[in-house]
Write a structure and sequence with these properties.
The protein has 480 residues and is α/β, with parallel strands linked by helices. The protein contains 15 helices and 14 strands. Helix 1 packs parallel to helix 2, helix 3 runs parallel beside helix 4 and helix 14 packs across helix 15.
């Protein structure tokens, strides 16, 4: 799709005759970490009714725990609802590939972190005769486009993104890197309205009033992220302001919503977990909690974050939100997408109870396009028909590394860690680690001897809800 116009690619011109019932398709989702498990399962839950869905957890050192999987799988439709109470046990890659060899599905959604996605796509492409259509993608906010996202997933048949803006950015990046674009559009599962529609006009942009449901709306929910911001001082600053908010507003529960308990892994590594930064004298209405974001939003008067996808989930529900810009606006903070959204603010806005409401003109290009624009399922269907006809063409990898079998063993060991117990993997690790270390040292020395001019990362100034923006003032009190 280009600027809202569809592109006739990947066999999409082959359509079923009018009135022909769709063929039942078996589609398997392969997931690993917490965020990829949530995204993959919920994307599949939006698939056409004639797709018979299965889900497999890939065993890696960073695979989500059963508790994380239970939270990730909450709210799925009938085809996958059982996963919330009975999450599948992780399965090793070789066992997964053997299962696909014995009974190949029509398609597989590879919803895994980059190195694991690359490995799984490569293994299936090489080892599974009459392989399934390989669909992949990224969870959450994927703007600005990142080359590694494309690099690891270049061999997949289809790459799913979630906004017109993302599709344009990734298409441009892929072409610049010599990769033929293969991107499709899907409404982000968490950006759908409560009615299940993805259309812009289905989103309630008015602030949600307190309700008399099973639980009152009494929570300001902070969606924590493991690596944004990364600096310990910045993270302590956020915690300090959350503590101040709790003290200023004893009528609120200020919830630090975390994605992992101690010892659990996440998609991105967390060096300074927020629970460790909460002071011992924090007020009792400041709590740290895990679980399902949807359940927390059921009680939320507002959602606060730096750049979490949870803000899109809040917008879809009509919950006021705030994307903190105290540390600026930058690629590393993943908050450039929210510029001019109406949701930007700072921690002073948080303490004073000032939250944003989304601007309608921002929505179409940023995750809230009409459902009719989504083409990922249609294009997957077209690719499955090509597979039926024996016309599915393998895509080239972006990786140009030499080394053959030993190099593949290194990449496998790098992706799977201790989950790879092969002798060749151990050999590749032993040989490859000093080589990689030496290359890194050489690159550092070159940068010292012959510095490469760099352009500083563009950083926007902090923004506030006090800068003339329309705001939702929720229980605001003067600071005292």
């Amino acid at each position: 799709m280009r600027d809202g116009r569809r592109e006739p690619t990947d066999g999409r011109e082959a359509r079923l005759p009018s009135g022909t019932p769709p063929r039942v398709r078996r589609v398997v989702g392969l997931v690993d970490t917490d965020s990829f498990a949530k995204w993959g399962a919920h994307l599949l839950a939006a698939a056409p009714a004639h797709w018979r869905l299965e889900l497999v957890v890939v065993a890696t050192p960073r695979s989500a725990s059963r508790a994380q999987l239970g939270a990730a799988f909450g709210g799925l439709d009938a085809r996958l609802a059982h996963l919330a109470t009975a999450p599948p046990e992780p399965i090793e890659v070789d066992a997964i590939v053997r299962g696909l060899q014995e009974d190949p599905p029509d398609a597989a959604l590879v919803a895994c972190i980059g190195p694991v996605a690359e490995l799984v796509i490569d293994e299936v492409s090489r080892r599974v005769p009459h392989r399934p259509v390989l669909v992949t993608g990224l969870p959450g906010i994927s703007f600005p486009a990142k080359w590694k996202g494309v690099f690891f997933r270049a061999r997949a048949d289809l790459f799913v993104l979630h906004s017109h803006r993302e599709v344009r950015a990734y298409r441009e990046l892929a072409r610049a890197g010599g990769i033929e674009p293969h991107f499709a559009l899907a409404t982000l599962p968490f950006a759908r309205s409560r009615t299940g529609r993805g259309a812009t006009d289905a989103v309630d942009r008015s602030p949600r009033p307190p309700s008399a449901e099973d639980h009152p709306r009494d929570a300001v929910v902070f969606a924590a992220q493991p690596s944004v911001p990364a600096d310990e001082h910045d993270r302590r600053r956020i915690v300090d302001r959350l503590v101040e908010t709790a003290r200023q507003h004893p009528e609120w529960r200020v919830v630090v919503k975390v994605r992992a308990a101690a010892g659990e892994h996440q998609t991105h590594r967390e060096q300074y977990p927020y629970p460790d930064l909460v002071p011992a004298d924090a007020p009792p209405n400041l709590v740290v909690a895990g679980g399902s974001m949807a359940q927390h939003l059921d009680r939320a008067v507002a959602l606060v974050t730096v750049s979490s996808t949870a803000v899109l989930e809040a917008v879809a529900r009509g919950v006021p939100a705030l994307t903190l810009t105290d540390f600026g606006i930058a690629r590393s903070l993943i908050n450039e997408v929210f510029v001019d959204s109406g949701l930007e603010g700072d921690t002073t806005d948080l303490v004073e109870g000032r939250f944003g409401t989304v601007r309608p003109e921002w929505m179409h290009d940023n995750h809230f396009h009409p459902a009719a624009d989504d083409d990922w399922a249609e294009r997957t269907e077209a690719l499955m028909r090509l597979r039926d006809a024996g016309a599915l063409v393998d895509r080239p990898a972006a990786r140009r590394s030499r080394g053959g079998t030993l190099r593949r063993a290194w990449e496998r060991k790098n992706a799977l860690g201790s989950a790879d117990r092969s002798v060749l993997g151990a050999l590749a690790l032993g040989l490859g680690t000093p080589v990689r270390t030496a290359k890194r040292i050489v690159r550092r020395l070159r940068r010292i001897v012959r510095p490469v001019p760099t352009t500083a990362e563009p950083v926007g100034a902090p923004r506030s809800q006090r800068d003339g923006e329309p705001v939702a003032v929720v229980g605001a009190r003067p600071r005292g």
